Amino acid sequence: MKNCSLLLSFTVLVFISAWPVNGAEPETNGQPVYGPRLERFAYPYPVKYFAVNSQQQQLEMAYLDVPAKAGTANGHTMVLMHGKNFCAATWQGSIKTLSEAGYRVIAPDQIGFCKSAKPRQYQFSFHQLAANTRALLDKLQIADVTVMGHSMGGMLATRFALQYPDSTTRLVMVNPIGLEDWKALGVPYRTIDEWYQRALNTTANGIRNYQRNTYYAGQWRDEFEPWVQMQAGMFRGEGREQVAWNSALTADMIFTQPVVYEFPQLKMPVILLIGDQDNTAIGKDAAPKELQPKLGNYAKLGPAAAAAIPNANLIRFADLGHSPHIQAPERFHQALLQALAAE
Prior knowledge:
Layout: E1 9-14, E2 27-28, E3 31-32, E4 48-54, E5 57-66, E6 77-81, H1 92-100, E7 104-108, H2 126-139, E8 145-150, H3 152-163, E9 168-174, H4 182-185, H5 192-200, H6 204-215, H7 225-234, H8 240-256, E10 270-275, H9 298-308, E11 312-317, H10 324-327, H11 329-342
Parallel strand pairs: 6-7, 6-8, 8-9, 9-10, 10-11
Antiparallel strand pairs: 1-4, 2-3, 4-5, 5-7
């Protein structure tokens, strides 16, 4: 339905709590400091770890596994894939809503992000992250899933659906990035070393200003601030170089591995939820001045993506930005549940 309005060797599962340690968080100028794996940052549900032997190294993949609310189970599992500047924790509103609607919800932190391992050397690819996620689901004995990805997670969810079509019953994308090929459009390539130096300059003020303008279409509310501090806190701690290096490696993955050309190959039902005010485009600040205004135009990119996907349902939010599930959670979740019920 188009344009509607509205394998590797994987080993053990280790169940370990990841709630903050007792005592006050360390602070810098009154702002929290988190470890390179988001130590001391509280997640809304207990964190578990999947031990994975990947690329000749032992790594840990953090994830949330939230059952359907008692008495509501519908037999379906939803896998949530976070964006580059997001974590499993930022899905908290969606997890609660989906659990109450009867879904079991699996929300991983991908390798290189948040509470998961941040290897010094790793061949990051969407194929690899999709394989890591499929291995986690295999260990949990989950066969068929609906996959929902936001931002970079939309690119990963697309790759997962293409890589494992027989186990992907539905694909949901929330303001996915990668709806255009920035390199092909003329955005210059940044080396990983350049991305690294850029990441080392990360500040809370810079994050907040970017989120206000891009994630929330110029709006700001106090409840957005924890997501600023979640990201900035990792860059205040002793592990900031490790965090910045993984940020650089994954930025290169995003820029060099477009999925937009493969949209016509998606065979399962696809739901696109798009905040039209989004203006995200990786590397836009380095693009020629005349090109910058043409990049990240989601009011055009959303319909174009829906037209390229054989079985797409496009739901647009004219006044919302890059993170509609955080900016207007009630509206977003009402639209999401209605679309899921209609499939």
